[in-house]
Model the fold of this input.
Amino acid sequence: MRLAEAFASATLDDIKAALDGGKLVLYSTGRPIGPDHKITRSEVMATFTFQSPAFGPDAADGAAAPLLAETTVVATGIGTPGWARLSKADGTPVVDLSVGPGNTEIKLASVSATKDFPLTITGLKFLPAESVEWNKTEFGHAFLTNHENPFRKVSVRG
Done:
């Protein structure tokens, strides 16, 4: 979970409340360092709309219970969803979440998206917030997170 600066000190309940009537947009890989940064290398795979309220009571295992207008939508892009941006109803970004198999925040019924075919969210959980640091090097920008997954720890972009 990567929070927008405006939500850095918000509680999980504050974050959930901010998403009332908002959007959950799935993107292909190429995740920016956080919600305050422009999306430049990702294609929209699908868009879901939160109801108001956006979440019901959490499940017994601690998983969040998103209340979506539709849990299955038609994919608008082709590829592998790698992350999602969750925004308020007015479009203000709140949080970026990881998508996919393994230790990710959003689980889908399928691994990839095919344009004009259904895409279903099967689970959502909020993992602890990631910190992200970046430095400009001779090779490009190096992003380092505190995530446990070694494949998500470092990213270098020219």
User: Anything to note?
Assistant: The CA atoms of residues 62 and 125 lie 7 Å apart. The chain is about 5% helix and 40% strand. The chain has a mean pLDDT of 86. The helical segments are 12-18.
